[in-house]
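task queued by scheduler; priority normal; single chain, no ligands, no partner chains; default sampling; output format set to structure tokens
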Amino acid sequence: MAAAAWVRASLAAVVAGCRWIGLSWPWTVIVLAWPPAAQGIYVGNVAVPLFALFAAAVWRPALLVAAPIFKIYSGLAALWLLRRAHWRSLVVGSAGVLAVGLATLPLTGVEPWSRWLAGLQAYQISQQLLPDYLYGFGLARFVPLIVFAAIAVAVAIAALRVRHPVEQLSRLGVATVVASPSLFAHGWLVALPGLVRLDTPWFWLALGLTACSPGLAWFVALGLVVASWTLPTLRKRPGSDAWHPLGAADMPWPSLADAGPSVRPAVALAGHGQPDEGTSTRSQPSG
């Protein structure tokens, strides 16, 4: 019964996340068959509900603080709170995490937490002994650690440089995948907002690469996304397009363009900067 409930919850999380970032119903169904979503649902990985939290963060930024409880490296997206000066959300999220931790201490004690930290250290050691298995197909498996770290930092900085808040969050999803020390297909879900930012031909190429067996080729798709950050010709442009997941929109979370005041506080500081070159102002939330 618990397994069935988790599967239903995972399906709901993928559907909700896809709809929140602006995908149509047909494309949402297609994403359910996309390897990152399909694998995440099949194995019951927590990356699936984390995708829903990530997708909802434009309205509830504090959710980004909760994600590292489950996967530490997912805390990279929380840099969005610092970059956007969402201090209240950062405090609220941190306080919520602390409150949950303290509330569970009478039930669990301190030992499970110490075991968790020891388990992380043991896994890190095991990765060196079994690199073909425990790294998954993370970038750290294919390049020296120093190179991996340099690439991860460079992509994160590039993601933070853009001024548009929605664009910035989608790019941090990509940076999270690049910086993942142990990566499997379901970890790519948070990169979906970045992938749909590609123009139709390039998006289909990325979709095809990530529909095959997971491997280094998947990073070619991410390479296209990162390249689009400086090459506007690779990005989706406004205008109806039945072959693109966003349809007429040019950016994920397109509902923010016409949303009411209830969703604006989360991106209220967006108005303090202008979009980077090649980024449409159509989807920019007003402050």
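post-processing summary
- The CA atoms of residues 169 and 270 lie 12 Å apart.
- The two ends are 46 Å apart (CA to CA).
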